[in-house]
Amino acid sequence: MAVAFFVIALISIRMTESELLSEKITTMSMETGELSNEVSQDLALGNARSLYNKIVEHGQELSCRIIIVNEAAVVQMDSFSALNGSVVQSRELLEVLTGTKADSYGYHQITDQTDTPFWAVYFTSAIIRDSRIIGAVLVSQSIQDIVSQTQATAQGYLMIFGAAMLLIVILSYYLTNHISRPIDDLRNASLKIAHGDYKARVLPLGNNELTELAKAFNTMSRRLQNVDKQRNQFVSNASHELKTPLASMKILVESLLYQDSQIDPTVLKDFLGDIDKELDRLTNLINDLLYITKMDDETDVIEVENVDLGDLISQIVMMLIPIAEKKNISLDLIETKVVHAECNAVMVRQAISNLTDNAIKYTKDGGKITVTISEDEENAFVAIQDTGVGIDRDDLQHIFERFYRVDKARSRLSGGTGLGLNIANTIAIIHGGKINVKSRLGQGSEFTFIIPKIYSKGKTV
Prior knowledge:
This protein is 55% helix and 20% strand. It is of the alpha+beta class.
């Protein structure tokens, strides 16, 4: 806090000083430039009287000292008549005489006639005649009044700083145990979390802002612990899911490689067919993993448009009908009326495809699947109802978890990745909606995809 106060005070002092000097510098730089133009002819012609009269007149008008030097920095005229014939050396004169700058200024601490030091600013401007630098004007003006005012301001800040620090010390003495201890607890717990110990908690005491902060911290740490657990579980599951098809393909390939005799073409075709299925399964898994990553990046804002859900879902149904027909499953679309919703068409297509494809996978041959589109005042509904195997009540609360399978063996045989329902549910949530599930074991399931008709979280195109 002391450092912050010091920095603020320093910035304030500098801003005050800069503001006081800014107008003076602008004005004097212009005056110096005009004077250099005015005296150029007199300096070139050696008209000393006119030169002297002009600088004395300007010096009295501007309350400053004016010196005219030639190209070798030798003083040709001094309004104080003290330095005539001497060489003046300063950075500002060097810059304009060498042509580095057309004009320049700088701050110097000098002494007056009584050897009292004071601050002055030097303004210089090149004297140019026939495109050649023949000398320079140096204007010296005191800024001691500004320096004194700045110092007074600094002393005022110092007094305020001292009083504030004294007050802080007194308050700190009485409040150390009341405030510092909970803060230390929070700090220690934060350090534990920073080192990976997500079980760290703090004990909320009292009923104040620090208590609320402690509760918020505990909530955060619990969520971090849960996220870390989910991450580890996700990595473990993803590794396992990727490993399974790779292991299967390795076994199949090794079986082909180590055959002693010529392989029967029928057997070879079967092996290659199995490898092709495993490759498809691996490709689907990788695509789903990439899609999940993409959705995680787009959870804040997505681009949406006004979509006719009937047209969109009829395309999905038409695409999946051949798959359903292979199992002699009837797949029908029922649209009570035209329903429009603001959504990301690509995402919604993915979600409904996942839900419908999932229904086909878990519906026995000869079954029936019905996709129904409806709406109320606020929401659009897409219900996928099947006559499949159904879901046990204990499994319902887990079906949207990544890699969760009700029947692992059956899911792998059907090519499932365990990510389809999670992707569909995430898409619904991104749109501000949800998925409702009704299911009875052995009697089928109904998944209802619900999204608001007017999207309010992102931008509409």
